[in-house]
Structure formats: structure tokens, C-alpha cells
Amino acid sequence: MNYISTRGAWSSPNAAQRFSDILLEGLAPDGGLAMPESIPQLSRAKLDALRDLTYPQLAFEIIRLFANDIPGGDLKALLARTYTRDVFGSAEITPLKTLESGLHILACSNGPTLAFKDIAMQFLGHLFEYVLGRSGGEINILGATSGDTGSSAEYAMRGKRGVRVFMLSPYGRMSPFQTAQMFSLDDANIFNIAIRGVFDDCQDIVKEVSSDIEFKRRMHIGAVNSINWARIVAQVVYYFKGYFAASASNDERVDYSIPSGNFGNIYAGHVARKMGLPIRRLILATNENDVLDEFFRTGNYRPRKSSETHQTSSPSMDISKASNFERYIFDMAGGDATHVAALWREIEHFGGFDISDDAMWDAVKASGVVSGSSTHQDRLDTIRHIHEKYGVTIDPHTADGVKVGLDHREQGVPLVCIETALPAKFEATVVEALGIKPERPAAYQGLEELPQTFKLMDADVDEVKRYIESHAG
Ligand SMILES: *Cc1c(COP(=O)(O)O)cnc(C)c1O
């Protein structure tokens, strides 16, 4: 499997990139994102053969299609080490919780940082160590987080040989639990940088540092943020797992609802659907930062400035420029990189683009994505409703997804809502909704009282570069 950039790089045969080549990269040299040349299609017979596999077996059958430059035996061993009951709390890894007939929650948040990002990130941790071990190389991971990516990356990479993590986060904007999870780590290879700004400022710094090719090469800068292709591939797996658990046979179709920020999670669902998994709809849920909802309703994509990004009670979705969206648009443009590059120039010059009169809009309609948004009050109401009716406590992000999912629910079609975090991670909003604290796993008692270390900085690219240079040994 070869990879190409959404803006055209790497398409000549002598520039061909394999999975391990793009694994440690952020953006492509032309500013685009890595995409597989084609999406593998699964036959009905193959789908039937996948239905009863364990999670690591299923992960192997899916990921090997995209990562066929890693020897099969090695990949299988890596996945068996990644997806264990020890790390994820159950052999199912992502168990399906049934609220009532046809209404489910896919529990994806039982990894070390209590958010779904661990599913992909734990795999990356093992994969990086494997790849660097083979090449004898090292990597300085530079990332931006609105809360969950950062902690997930740090817990996956702590103590990993050849790996350092420099993680930018918006100062004072993460939940106390998220902040404590990251800033209490004292591993020598983990560096927390708090930026005076919002998530998009952090993400812009990462993009700018990574576009300095000389610096990137010299400092071995790599990325694990949501544009990392290996993360998308690892997330494709639980769409299969959830589908098999929610249906009795591969003749059925199911709907998924997905709380969305950077469009990574839902994009993995889109890939699963393209591979032939019988997903009817992908229901995209945003909070008050509703850029993506606006696009799917109108065909008009208008990313907001960071000053127009609302701080909400589902902070991991406070994103107004969804990086993986470019991958989806590349698909909708039929893989026409010139068209994609032109649309992104339009964003640069005119602040957005409108495809409602374009043939691409028909492709969007056919892709099964529908959308909706929710408010703080909706989240409170949904947390309360689910707790009262089913005795289950959900976090505010999952509540965004459940709210919009229920709005789009159709009789006779199972609805699977992806749980993106445990409620313990976002205590304040859960207490506001229910008047009681959510249960917290024993290992996390007293987390906020641990000493915290971080470096506070303005949103200044050069200062970040200097910091990396002086700490990257
Ligand atoms: C990251 C995250 C999201 C958004 O996922 P994307 O892949 O960026 O769309 C939603 N909820 C939680 C809890 C998250 O950590």
C-alpha cells in the first residue's frame, strides 16, 4: 500500500511512501495529509470471517491491509501486546453497552487516560518503539492537545526508548483532571508546554514548526496528533467491533453517532464504511463550535478564528478547524489533489469555501454523514436523561453524541453511540447535571493533589523551537 498527499505530493512512483515512511511524519511536504492510494474493499465472505474474531485478531486483519510493509508476524505480536485486558480493563477492549433494544454505547474509554484516544495511541507507543528499534533512530514528538490527545500520547510514550514528547496545551482550558493527568507525569522523556491561547493556537504552532523542513529533519520532529494516519487506521477497528456486537448478521445496517472535533474518529468510521462495513449513517455531533455541522447542513465550510472558538463543557471538541476534514474532502473530490489544494487556497484567501453547487456535494450526500450540534443545556439534559432512564452515567462529549444521535434515530436501525471519555474525566459538568460525583477508578484517587510541572509560554513559534532544541538532548 502506497500513500499520497491530499495536495499531490508523493504521487510519482519514485517518491512512493509506505506506511512506515509516513508513520513518524506530520504534514506532507506540500502541507497536505497522507492518504492511502486506495481503500481496500472487503468481500462479504471476508466480512463474515471477521465477525467472531477477538479484538487483537480483528485489529490485525484490518491494520495489515494498510501497513503491509510491516512483517505480519511482527504486527500481530505488537497488536497482541497493545490490546490486553490489563491495559483496557476487559478482553473485549471496546465492549458494547446496551441501553435498550437498538440503542447502544460503544465503551471506548477504558484505557489508561479514560478517553477513546488510548485505543490508537497505545498502539502507536508500541509501534514507534518497534520501528525506532529497527532503525536505531530517535524521535521528538511534537503535539497539540485540547486535553485528551496530550495525556493519551504521554501515557503511551512514557519511558519508551528513543522517544521524547513535547506537548502543547492551551493554558487553563483543560479540565482539572486532564491537567493533572498530564502535568503530574515526571518521566524524563515527557515535556509539557502550556500556551497562553486556545487549542487552535497550539495546533498552528505545531503546523508552523513542522513546515520548517530543516528544523523538522534536524530535530527528528514527529507527530501523533489527530492527523497521524496510524491513529485513524487503529480507530477503524472499533467500528467493526461495534458493528459486529450490535448486529446479528452482516445483512444488517447500523448507525453510528460520533462526538467530533478534529474529524479523526468519524473519518475512521468513513473509512470503515468505504471498506464495505454496513454502516448506514455516520451521525456527526458538534458542541457550540459547530463549523462541521454547518458544513454538512449547507455545503459551506467556514473555519473560525481562534478568537471565535467557544470554551465549552465538552472541551475536547472546542475546535474550529478540523484537520482531518481535508482527508474527507479529498475523497469527495474523487482523489483530485489539485482541486483540494485549490479549496485550501480559497480558505487562506477568502476564509472558507462553498461546494453546495458542486458535484462534490452529491458525493457528500452519498457518504452517509449527517450532523447536528448541542448546547451546554443539551448536554446536561442528556446526561440526566440517560442516567434516569438507564442508570448509566455518560461524560459531556458522549452526551453531545447521544443527543444528536437520538435526534437522528430511526426505528429499526440500531444506533451505536461512541463513548469518547469516562465521566470521571469531566466531573464538574456531571455534578452540575446529576448533583453527584461520577465514579472514579481507584488508580485515579487524589490525582489533582500530585505535584505538577509544566513550562508556560506565549503562542510564539520561535520560543517553542528554542525550548525543543535545548531539551532534545
Ligand atoms: C478527541 C476527542 C473528541 C473528538 O475526536 P476527533 O477525533 O478529534 O473528532 C471527542 N471527545 C473526546 C472526549 C475526545 O478526547
Write a brief caption for the model.
The chain is α/β, with parallel strands linked by helices.
What does this entry look like structurally?
This protein has 473 residues and is α/β, with parallel strands linked by helices. It has two domains: 45-87 and 115-228 and 451-471, Rossmann fold; 95-112 and 235-434, 3-Layer(aba) Sandwich (Rossmann fold). 44% of the residues lie in helices and 15% in strands. It has 20 helices and 15 strands. A six-stranded mixed β-sheet has the order 3-4-14-9-10-13, sandwiched between helices. Strands 8-5-6-7-15 form a five-stranded parallel β-sheet, with helices on both faces. The protein has a two-stranded antiparallel ribbon with strand order 1-2. β3 (96-100) and β4 form a beta hairpin. The longest helix has 19 residues, at 117-135. It is globular and about 55 Å long. The model has no long low-confidence stretch (mean pLDDT 95). Bound molecules: pyridoxal-5'-phosphate. The site of pyridoxal-5'-phosphate (PLP) has 16 residues, from α12.
